[in-house]
Amino acid sequence: MIHWEALLVVLAGLALGTGIALATLVPMMKGLTGQAPYIPPLLYGSLAATVLVTGLAAASIPARSAVRGTLDA
């Protein structure tokens, strides 16, 4: 359950972050260069993968530690 919650938070963060970045970058780039911003797919994919791994680790490590602490007592 913790993994699903972490996954939901990561996906929501990626979606909101991407939306906010595009909402600000597209008008600025259209005004400056007349073109939409280019985001290399490999760069965005590596960012998303890093966020996913970090988010899942940030949820899993403390959860395992908490479970081990309650079982040892």
Percent helix, as a range, is over 70%
Shape: elongated
- Identify the quaternary structure here: single chain
Question: Helices and strands, in N-to-C order?
Answer: HH
DSSP strand tally: 0
Distance separating the two termini:
23 Å
Into which percentage range does the β-strand content fall? under 5%
Largest β sheet strand count, sense and barrel closure: none
Structural class: mainly alpha
Our count of helices gives: 2
- List low-pLDDT spans: none
Q: Provide the residue-averaged pLDDT.
A: 91
Radius of gyration: 18 Å
Brief digest:
This protein is an all-alpha fold and 73 residues long. It is 88% helix and 0% strand.
Account of the 3D structure:
- The protein is mainly α.
- Helix content is 88%, strand content 0%.
- The chain has two helices and no strands.
- The chain has helices spanning 2-33, 41-72.
- It is elongated and about 60 Å long.
- The model has no long low-confidence stretch (mean pLDDT 91).
List the keywords.
73 residues; mainly alpha; 2 helices
Describe the secondary structure blueprint for this structure.
Elements (H helix, E strand, L loop, with lengths): L1 H32 L7 H32 L1
